Amino acid sequence: MRWAVEAELDDEYDLCQAVDEFWEHEPAAADWHMLPEKLTHRLRHFTSIPGEETFSRNDRLTDWLIYALEQDRPQLS
Fold first, then answer.
1. Which class for 35: exposed (0-12), middle (13-18), buried (19 or more C-beta within 10 A)?
2. Distance CA 45, CA 12 (A)
């Protein structure tokens, strides 16, 4: 899962469209547990690159972090 998110975040040319097939097989809730921690670490250590659209990359990373946190949340029955 982490690889799929990282690939999408780092894909500047929309070449990772095949990763959509990975997400079609929805991971179990327990599988989401480590992803928010890894994405939080990446966000904390995010550095901008001169000439790069920093806001866009940072915004996508934040969106993934929010989504991962929502998926990691215990489901109420």
1. buried
2. 20
- The amino acid present at 31, given as its one-letter code, is D
Angle at 49 between CA 4 and CA 35, to 5 degrees: 25
45 residue type, one letter: H
Spans of all domains in the chain = 2-72
Tens place of pLDDT per residue across the chain (77 aa): 888 888 888 887 877 777 888 888 888 877 888 889 889 998 888 776 666 655 566 788 899 999 999 988 766 55
d(CA 63, CA 33): 16
